[in-house]
Amino acid sequence: MSTIDSLILKTIVDTAHDHFFVVDADGQVRHVSPSAAAVYGMSCEALCASTVQRLEADGVLDPSVSLEVIRSGRPVQLVQRTGTGRRVIAQAHPIFEEGKLVAVVSRSMDLTDLQLLQQEYALLQQRFSDHLKNSQAIEREDSTLEHELDELEVKSPLMREIALLLRRVAPTDATVMMLGESGVGKTAFARQLHRWSARRDGAFIDINCAAIPENLFEAEMFGYRAGAFSGAAPGGRIGLIEQAAGGTLFLDEIGELPLGVQTKLLKAIQDGHISRLGDNQSRRVDFRLVVATNQDLNRRVEEGSFRLDLYYRLNVIPVTLPPLRERREDIPGLVERQLRRLNRRYGQEKLLDRSSWQSLMSKDWPGNVRELENWLERAWLSSDDIIHATTFASTGPGAPQTQEAAPVEAPEVPAIQRPLREGDGLKDALNRTEHAILAELCETLSSTYAIADRLGISQPSVVRKLKQHELRIQR
């Protein structure tokens, strides 16, 4: 390395906000940034006169991230406690020469600094929120919002404020992170953000990161060339990121993204290029990234299962969708929308009894919009022309309760007289008993869903058993 290159590198390390360590393969500290002295409680000279093994033994580095890299030969991220009692997030990367480890470069960020940045960002969000509430221009925008939300139900002031924020950032290419409990509607709002954007004519690629096996993730996300691995398609395959070119890539459950794929995704975000598996050619990909999670990514970062630098890249515009219990004004619209969908799907016109509204509005709905829609579908399938509140009084964690409604009396399971006949085995007796129970329920209940709920088994199991016993629902 030339003298000028050495001076440039030294300037970068000395002026960086992060705290840098450069360590030899044997653990000897060669260089540290001046800012590290205050965090680790030793002067730069004292640190450089020591080894990471000694610093770890003395509690200055607890543990040493560089030593972990020397042991494993791989990049490492962990939460470290320093000799001054501070907690820092440390990352370290190995440097190889001709296949041999020659050095380790690590950097760390004080979690105190990170918390201050988060507080500053929260303050900016609050100021922006106050601006939305006080701006007359935004009030005019709010009056036209209703016609642009398609099937989204946004009645509560809190949700309207979030919708307005999304509409304002939609024309940009800024990364949006959707936060909130499971079932609050993160995917639906991501789709609406896409429809509002200039990329609306492009593809909306929806990926659930928790649904793809880790060993297939990289091939699915980035694609592969023909012959890249055993079992690869003869012509290769275009990855999901490339399919989102010109459109929006939505990564749900981003907290489940494997660490190896996180590194490649970070690179794709930073320089806009990807490489398929088995391909040395770099490809330019232009896409808008939207992510969602119901996890605490800060904690995932501290645990070392999520990259800090990727977190910074994703957390550009965080949008937290509140749970349904905090925006009950949206429940009537959501119920009416779901009833319209069900009536169209099954070709009937069922109505909701008025007495049901108190039960629907008072329930906390821990599963949020998804739970509300699922229970309404079960109620629709288990009812006649009118859906009553008593339809919901069933087993399950999300069943709404009401004091006025009388409990539903489940049909009595028929008593089987003398179940074991002469010459019968246990299997014969069980089959005959099962047939009698199902036959009775086919006469008293109106759907396979209701039978499944009564018996505590799945609806497909009921369908299979009715076919096996040649039974049909009579009502």
Features:
475 residues; alpha/beta; Beta-Lactamase; Rossmann fold; Helicase, Ruva Protein, domain 3; 4 domains; 6-stranded antiparallel beta sheet; 5-stranded parallel beta sheet; 20 helices
Description of the structure:
- The structure is a single chain.
- The protein is α/β, with parallel strands linked by helices and 475 residues long.
- 44% of the residues lie in helices and 16% in strands.
- β12 (273-274) and β13 (283-284) form a beta hairpin.
- Residues 393-418 have low confidence and may be disordered.
Helix/strand layout:
Layout: H1 3-15, E1 19-24, E2 29-32, H2 36-40, H3 44-48, H4 52-57, E3 61-62, H5 65-72, E4 76-82, E5 87-97, E6 100-110, H6 111-134, H7 136-145, H8 157-169, E7 176-179, H9 186-196, E8 204-208, H10 214-222, E9 223-224, E10 237-238, H11 240-243, E11 248-252, H12 259-271, E12 273-274, E13 283-284, E14 288-293, H13 297-303, H14 308-314, E15 317-320, H15 331-346, E16 351-352, H16 356-362, H17 368-382, E17 386-387, H18 426-444, H19 448-455, H20 459-468
Parallel strand pairs: 7-14, 7-15, 8-11, 11-14, 16-17
Antiparallel strand pairs: 1-2, 1-6, 3-4, 4-5, 5-6, 9-10, 12-13
Brief write-up:
This protein is α/β, with parallel strands linked by helices and 475 residues long.
Structural class, from helix and strand content?
alpha/beta
CATH superfamily of the largest domain: P-loop containing nucleotide triphosphate hydrolases
Low-confidence stretches: 393-418
Helix content: 40-55%
Q: Can you list the strand order of the major beta sheet? A: 2-1-6-5-4-3
Can you give the mean pLDDT?
81
